[in-house]
């Protein structure tokens, strides 16, 4: 909108606003004079004043003209402001005529009444300053002229008996109207500007929300499109690794392929995790777990990589830590990201993970987690940027150590979800220390839930069990069938929800793996129809979408579990053994 249009629109709106706000006050002025002014003629009648007929005729003429203006207003021809102005302009010559033709023995009462009328005008009228100025100029010209023409002595008598104060008050009339109008217009301008800004902000908000929704939908779709083939790659690599008869060259190629697929999966997960955090889709799921066991598992997972680089890897924690009530997966993700970075950017020396108790109450324990290294370090001017998305200390990062630059950004946001703040201390060439404190509910050590199987034993599926695999992707079906064949588990396959429903109606199954997005009939509809027949059969959602809202939708739609692609064989078998009866 250009400035000319903006000003024009504002002025039009102001005229409309001013008319609405002052309409009834301006009409009150009109009605008061149309009724009250002729009524004053009867005062002359009660005093047996011979000027009564003349005054009555003049005031009835005024009222008749005034009624015409009111009629025009109510017909929508003129505004209330115009009607009150025209009534006032009609009143002036009528009143001047009376002043000129009707002699007064004293003008005390006349000047007093005229002053009261002026005060009434101050109170009820809401005019632009120019209209008030025109009326004032006419009063100043007409009334003294009428008095002086009638008889010079009338003029001096009127001025000496209160007329002077009336004219002084009349001179103030345009100033009062001008400043009142200006103040009201300024107030309206502020409200108008605020409304304009609110409207623009609302539009920007809608644009931002639409962009965020589009981004989430895009990432959800891309997640499905990328993770579905990635599931086949990761799964097949694990199947190939199990074949011990391959040559060393083939094993090296498979190991390289495994590394690349794992790295690609980490990149996809990082991007999706950061998008979920920014979209408020990440919710913590607290549960009781053993922090010592978590640290031990993390140590074992990073030990091979540390040994490859000849680094000393230390994990330290207090003895007899209580059981922690928190989201184990997200806490593990934070520590994993920090340790991964520490190992990646340290060529010699050590990486040390420390957990210390900083305080304890009856219900909560305050733990400080820190990850220190003797790596390249980060300069002071770059430290404020390391938590930004897609940021790395580029001048110090070797090409082979590249990544998404999302790990620290994700870790910081996850720590904030826990109620803490990720801090950094570092110096070039002397390593870095990332640390954060969390206050977590705890319970004293108790007997942890025992696993269903003996360590080292291989569970066996009941010989009567049968699984239905439903997926429209041939590679995913091939991977899942190979995993089931290795355990000699009977199965059937379907490429869409309609086929799955037909097979279910003709065959008894103990477990169904159901893809969510398929042609003909999707997984949600197929599951709904199956649930109408059997409310207890385990149906596992098999999907490439890692978004929390789709998980919640699936579980609310009748699915009993949720498996995200790409999945590892151990994750697949874990669900199979958990959902199907195991022979003892």
TrEMBL record:
This enzyme catalyses: ATP + protein L-histidine = ADP + protein N-phospho-L-histidine
The record's PROSITE patterns line, in alphabetical order, gives: HIS_KIN (PS50109), RESPONSE_REGULATORY (PS50110)
Residue span(s) of domain Response regulatory: 466-580
- Modified positions (4-aspartylphosphate) are 515
Q: Give the domain of life.
A: Bacteria
Enzyme Commission number: 2.7.13.3
**Keyword Membrane among record annotations:** yes
Q: What's the protein here called?
A: histidine kinase
Which species?
A: Dyadobacter linearis
